[in-house]
Amino acid sequence: MMNRIFWKFKFSGLNVVLWILFGLIFFYNFHKYIFKYGDTGTSPTYSDTPFIWKFSKYVIFMFVCVYMSFKIKNKFRLSHGNWLFLFLISFNLLALVFFYFFSGQIIFDEFEYIIWFILYLILLLIDQSVIDNMVNFFNDKAKLFVSALVLFNIIAILNFILFKRLPALGYEDGLVRFGGGWDDPNGFGFLCSVFAALAIERKWWLILVGLVLSIILTVSLSTYLDLILVLILTAYRGHDKINYKRSLIYVVLFIGLVFILFYFENQLLDLYSIKKGSIDEHIAFKTSYSFFASVDNKYLNFETWLWGYLINFTPVSIIGVIFIFCYWLKMFLSKKRDFFSIYIIVFIFGNLFIPLIKNFPVNLLFFVFLAFDQRINSQINTNIKVVNIETDSREYNEISD
């Protein structure tokens, strides 16, 4: 009895930090909808986010990193893949420093995800027991996090219907796109797409309905493509036997999609005409190569992040793109997939269309899940349990010294 009480006391600090970390990821951006904070350029009825609010997420993040750094045991050897991730991120940072030195400009969108990378490195080095508990914490609380996101989006939808409260990317007598409490249709839609896999496997049918509704109302073509990939990944995961219940779900979803395409043909054509400018921007390929951006002060912005990365960080980015593609292909073809690997696959795929790597908090969650996936697959210390997305929840591992 005393042992169990001591264990709970010992890990109560980690529990608090995990609530802080995942609260930052899932709930921090709710301020955008609640206080109408955002970008006045794209959202005329909103005001710019105060600096203190922007800065606070970095303070919270660094607190988490400092706490986690005390869990480092230095027993985990970095693999070749880990070293390559470290090399690519380090080069990006060096290129951004040179760009600032030559031009006086800070490309903060590129710099921000390098900050989140710090936690990835720490998670590769911390004690295995901490990883066990982090994985189980998320696995146990995932339903709560997803339910909160869906519920808040329903509130935003009802708020628009009843009180005409427009979201950030909603315009009177024009297109209205819902992005939940985040007020970000692309980032929110991506997360809804990935969590649809979890909802199907764990039979959260009511949540799945809310996720699909949320995905549709993002009016994000990239989100729709993400959802298609998620369905492909979850439809076949190397099972020896055909899961007929799961297959029936996909048949129903496919028939529903065909029905929507035919029944709403005119509306979809109108939507395409509205989104045509955005589509053209996403598929536009600029070919002004440079050794890297700082040489001629020509950092180019792209809606497609992988293409922009290739152009702005040449020639090292060529190695990076090849590595990212090989890493993605290996995970895509693997018959052993858990939720973390599905998230990573869809995240990398999504960067073909929009810069998800620059989108907080889905980029931070990417680095957390990337570390989880690599620590699980490393098989260093056999006590770790792989999180199978078919499992509802797990108890925390009781770890003794």
Write out key terms for the chains shown.
single chain, disordered N terminus, 68% helix, mainly alpha, 401 residues, two-stranded parallel ribbon
Structural class: mainly alpha
Order of secondary-structure elements: HHEEHHHHEEHHHHHHHHHH
Termini, distance in Å? 16 Å
Tally of separate domains: 1
Number of H- or I-type helical stretches: 16
Our estimate of the beta-strand percent is under 5%
List the uncertain runs. 1-10, 287-291, 380-401
As laid out across the biggest beta sheet, the strand order is 1-2
If you compute it from the alpha carbons, what radius of gyration comes out, rounded to the nearest whole angstrom?
22 Å
Largest sheet: 2 strands, parallel
- Strand tally: 4
Write the layout of secondary structure elements.
Elements: H1 2-27, H2 30-35, E1 37-38, E2 47-48, H3 51-69, H4 80-103, H5 108-125, H6 128-163, E3 169-170, E4 176-177, H7 185-202, H8 205-217, H9 221-235, H10 244-263, H11 265-283, H12 293-296, H13 305-312, H14 316-333, H15 339-350, H16 362-378
Parallel strand pairs: 1-2
Antiparallel strand pairs: 3-4
Helix pairs in contact: 1-3, 1-6, 3-5, 4-5, 4-14, 5-16, 6-8, 7-8, 7-9, 7-15, 9-15, 13-14, 14-15, 15-16
